[in-house]
């Protein structure tokens, strides 16, 4: 892992950009010298790690004593897209503009992204936990499909917060039954791109004995800010 820049922000958080092979990422760490629990924050495909609302959530969380890391998955943000990625995105745009069913397109598009992203996250996790000032346990926040796959494979993930908006491939819907860690799931009740019943069925499928669903009125990007406050309290119960 090579750090390429760093800056101390007004809230005392240290923000550092890094590269790990071909993986670009950002690490936010609190001002405290004590080892901080780590939270991996993964965005839905297509949203760069530097997106304003993602950075705001990361800074808020880091200022409350957590190390927070985000990376760009293959084909996202600063990472180049393959010809297959471009073709899949073009087909998705075409189907949506034509009002055609898009589940099959999403399945063929999102499934490979999840398979590519999870190894990158596990490599990043190895590198982050070797740094001074970062300790376990580890939490995960964000993209549901990647989070399910990562939690199914990675025993170091102790708790997770999922954003229900976004397509979850069939393979991850089956893997949800294997997830037993504490979960907090955030659902936008009027999410235009995520059928409500599908999200509720997925929540029901999770094998966790402790799982909480927070549902709010509004569209895909309308998650209230107070849910971040609740998410930090959730991680405080399970990572401290």
Describe this structure in words.
The protein is an alpha/beta fold and 240 residues long. It has one domain: Alpha/Beta hydrolase fold, catalytic domain (Rossmann fold, 3-Layer(aba) Sandwich), CATH 3.40.50.1820. Helix content is 39%, strand content 26%. It contains seven helices and nine strands; from the N terminus they run ββββαβααβαβαβαβα. The chain has helices at 52-62, 83-97, 103-129, 144-153, 170-175, 196-205, 226-239; strands at residues 2-8, 14-20, 23-29, 36-42, 67-71, 134-143, 157-163, 183-188, 211-216. It has a nine-stranded mixed beta sheet, with helices on both faces. Helix 2 (83-97) packs across helix 3 and helix 3 crosses helix 4. It is globular and about 55 Å long. The two termini are 26 Å apart.
Main CATH class: Alpha Beta
CATH architecture: 3-Layer(aba) Sandwich
Which overall shape is indicated by the principal axes computed on the Cα atoms? globular
The fraction of residues assigned to DSSP E strands is 25-35%
Number of strands: 9
Count of helix runs: 7
The CATH homologous superfamily is named Alpha/Beta hydrolase fold, catalytic domain
The helix/strand order is EEEEHEHHEHEHEHEH
- Under CATH, the topology is which? Rossmann fold
Strand order of the largest sheet: 1-2-3-5-4-6-7-8-9
Mean pLDDT: 91
> Helicity level, as a percent range?
25-40%
Largest sheet: 9 strands, mixed
Number of domain modules = 1
Overall SS class: alpha/beta
Radius of gyration: 17 Å
Low-confidence stretches: none
Terminal Cα span:
26 Å
């Amino acid at each position: 892992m090579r750090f390429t820049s760093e800056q101390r922000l007004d809230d005392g958080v240290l923000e550092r950009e890094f590269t790990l092979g071909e993986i670009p990422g950002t690490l936010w760490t609190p001002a405290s010298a004590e080892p901080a629990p780590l939270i991996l924050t993964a965005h839905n495909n297509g949203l760069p790690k530097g997106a304003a609302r993602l950075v705001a959530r990361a800074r808020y969380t880091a200022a409350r004593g957590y190390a927070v890391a985000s990376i760009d998955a293959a084909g996202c943000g600063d990472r180049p897209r393959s010809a297959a990625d471009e073709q899949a995105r073009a087909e998705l745009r075409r189907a949506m503009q034509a009002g055609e069913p898009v589940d099959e397109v999403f399945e063929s598009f999102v499934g490979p992204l999840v398979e590519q992203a999870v190894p990158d996250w596990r490599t990043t996790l190895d590198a982050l936990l070797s740094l001074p000032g970062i300790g376990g346990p580890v939490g995960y926040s964000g993209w549901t499909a990647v989070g399910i796959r990562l939690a199914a494979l990675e025993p170091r993930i102790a708790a997770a917060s999922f954003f229900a908006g976004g397509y979850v491939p069939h393979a991850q819907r089956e893997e949800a039954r294997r997830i037993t860690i504490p979960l907090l799931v955030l659902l936008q009740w009027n999410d235009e791109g995520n059928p409500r019943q599908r999200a509720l069925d997925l929540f029901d499928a999770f094998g966790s004995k402790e799982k909480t669903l927070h549902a709010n009125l509004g569209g895909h990007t309308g998650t209230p800010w107070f849910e971040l406050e609740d998410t930090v309290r959730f991680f405080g119960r399970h990572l401290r």
